Amino acid sequence: MDTNLNRRSAIKGILAGTAAMTLPTGFSALAMPKVETDITSNFLKGNINHSVARWCFNDFDIENLCIEVKKIGITGIDLVGPKDWPILKKYDLVSTMCNGAEINLVDGFNDIKFHETLIKNYTEMIPLVAKAGYKNLICFSGSRRGKTDEEGWTNCVLGLQKLIPLAEKYNVTLVMELLNSKIDHKDYQCDKTYWGVELAKRLNSENFKLLFDIYHMQIDEGDVIRNINENHHYIAHFHTAGVPGRNEIDETQELNYPAIMKAIAKTGYKGFVGQEFIPKNPNKLISLKQAIAICDI
């Protein structure tokens, strides 16, 4: 079967109706694909719950982003904090991966000197997430700074165990993101699936899981589908992006996203897949529609 042909056909379908969008200054209508019919969110198959990372579309204010993603059929926005939750609610969108309790990506739970601040931040944020009706709250291991795997696991357990009872009480899931340490986040400790899974096993709670970033894990370990199949019980969320470059997830990069999405769906996963790529196309909404088409298996 010609997978690329199928992918192009899907993209052609979901791009229908795009011609009516307002184009950014300097972007020619001649560059847009030829469209034939108006496609709405009803086109989506419903096998994948779609979201998008806020930071990748920071040139849209949050309200306009909500309006545009609703048109595509996206039902959630990742990495949105409490300040913007009322706007998401206005448009019946979910904050699919809440943030705002973390210090940053490098100062995390693997270092006890950050525990006091982190425990205070997360103790305040967990009830807010629950009150808003949301589920997932992101967290990070932090950089190794010379720590062994065992030291990192031990320190993360010490910190996170103080928060797990509160997360369980409020039915909030603390979700640690897997990030590559080869290209983007040098020295980050939770940089392999096995590392995050081992931490989840030690914590032994349904209220701690992993954010499996497909882009990051392709760079640091590959074997994406096998790792998803073997460890899906520990995964609460997925992120996408093209490899190499973190750009569009189309034929210009090496990952076969339709196959990955089929593998995810086959596990019975019911969470969200968040688009977290940096568009090269001046009209970022076209790239976002393409990504949804590719992933909507």
UniProtKB/TrEMBL annotation:
Pfam families: AP_endonuc_2 (PF01261). This is Hydroxypyruvate isomerase family protein. It comes from Flavobacterium zhoui. PANTHER family: ISOMERASE, XYLOSE ISOMERASE DOMAIN PROTEIN TIM BARREL. Residues 89-279 form the Xylose isomerase-like TIM barrel domain. Signal peptide: none annotated. Keywords: Isomerase. InterPro entries: Sugar_Epim/Isomerase (IPR050417), TAT_signal (IPR006311), Xyl_isomerase-like_sf (IPR036237), Xyl_isomerase-like_TIM-brl (IPR013022). PROSITE patterns: TAT. One of its GO terms (molecular function) is isomerase activity.
